[in-house]
Amino acid sequence: MSEAASETAFEAVGGRRGGNPRAWIARRAEGIVLPLAALFAGMVAFSIFLLVIGKSPPELFDLMWRGGFSSWFSIQNTLSRTAPLLLAGLCVALPARLGLAVIGGEGAIVLGGVAAAAIGGVLGGSGLPGPLGIGIMALAGMAVGALWIGSVGALRHYRAVNETISGLLLAYIAIAIMNHLVEGPLRDPASLNKPSTRPLEAAYRIGSIPGTDVQWGLAVGVVACILCWVLIEKSSWGFAARIAGGNMRAAQIQGLPVGPLIVGFCAIAGACAGLGGMLEVAAVHGAANASLAAGYGYTGILVAFLARQNPLAIIPVAILLGGIDASGGLIQRRMHLPDATVLVLQGMIFIAILFSDTFYGRFKAFNPELWTEKA
Amino acid sequence: MAGSDIGLWGVPLAILGGAIRVSTPFIYVSLGETITERSGRINLGLEGILVFGAMTAYAVAYMTSSPWLGLLAASGAGACFGLFHGWICKFPKVNDIAIGIAMMLFGTGFAFFLGKPFIQPLAPHLPALPFGFWSDIPQVRAALDVNVLFLIGVGLAVVLWWAFRNTRIGLIIRVVGDSADAARAMGVDPDRVRLLSTAAGSALAAIGGGYLSLYYPGSWNEGISSGQGLMAVALVIFSRWNPLGCLAAAILFGGAGALGPALQSVGLTHGYYLFYAAPYVLTLAIMIASSSPGRTLAGAPGELSITK
Questions:
Q1: Chain A contact set for B97 (CB, 8 A)
Q2: Domain range enclosing B35
Q3: Is A187 helix (H, G, I), strand (E, B) or coil?
Q4: Do A160 and B88 touch (CB under 8 A)?
């Protein structure tokens, strides 16, 4: 590989070497302005929809602001919902950097939660100190999640099975396994209406960040986002993954270990989602039950796409969508709208963000290579 | 054995009846997806369109007291979703798989939104033909009560199989799916053919949804579909884009889906949640068995992104 070729590859994945700072800023701005514009367009489409059904868009967005962001109480509510979204978003974003559309994060969340609850139950009588037990539970959740999504990657690479379909199928299978375990072998006989595993001992539950009602999962999620960002943007593994995501065949010809990269990144993605499930059990529900399949895995898809698969950008996006999620109840009560309102809004934003892909490279302001053509 | 006590024979009989009942939505969705994929696009959003079709069919059938009008409305709504998918995928750099994921989430969410008022009321059902009239055994009669949509679906599979080989439209769709350049050289606009193929496929998927809400299970609720639309997309790959293959695979899947309820009906309740996972496991196993790296699948449309 010649020096010039490697430099081009570096440029192609967003490197800064050799470019002037204005060009660098312009190129970076494209990835911020276009998603924001798509977000806005999605909200406009949703406003039109609200007008058609005779509801007031300003009232809705006002309630969204008040329910998600305006007071300390609502911000804490938002941040509590942000934690699983961060990890679910990572579960989509990491494989996406390799060009894989893995959207079965819900399965890893569910099984990660069940594994953590099962291990927590076993440790219950052992008298193991709390932090150690929590660590083991987290490892169990991550291991199961990694196995689940890692196998999606392995099937993709070694058997050419479409990862989108296999991931979703495995999510359905995961939910069936959870129902089987929670209704059968792991059921707490005391849980009558809503079958659950035995509640975790107090020592194995994760509390709130001091001075807040926000669960520690938020901090864990933010740290995970930063670590994944370092992995993708700053490590040689991440560099290889980005090359493979750009052109799989070229990466293979270059001798990059494409198979281990795909399986490895999918496994890390699954570990994130599994950790998300473990946090839901240890910090929110205190036991594993059907509440684990709350749809965080699916909202995580939107989080990742809005963040353009960038782990750092996932943090603000997850807070935004967590806030929309948190305001859902208020909107439902005040405006007499169904709980699916949030899903409609998310769907419209999602379609807008995907449509915005067509505008990359079209605007002169963002694309320095078009500047010289003018002269 | 006398009367209604037919013991374990109830299991294969229930599976047969279940295969016919459960397979019908699979038939429609997989035939629809076959049309779309033959034209070189993949629409993963059929799961969402199926749910939206189920809601539309139920709501319209309830309001007009005619299940057939419900089906008509569902296919119209499905076609609208398909037109939108086909239109938006025409733009450069827009990924048809990702748009399908978005349609899946949007279609489901939108159906839940509009369908809230229709969860309680009862809509009229689609008719069934009692092919079991010769028998006195209620289980046999139940198993052979064949709904009209199943029969239409079987006919449709044969017609499509014939049409892909022998008609001009079938040829145009196949050419567009195999090589957009060749289609352009023939004077055919690939985007338009794909637009219409996606619309037709989505309309069929929505009819499959209408079957769910108007015949079996026969009511509208938010848990009406459990991945049938998605599995049907996988079925299409397994049946190598052949409508008759889709029919056979759909019936096989119907049987797998009926396994859980059939075993439950003879009193086997232990671990029946795992039997509910049978269709997903079967789909996955079939996908693993039927695909392999390094070679293109026989019969795959050349322009299809999923096989590249």
A1: 101, 164
A2: 7-302
A3: strand
A4: no
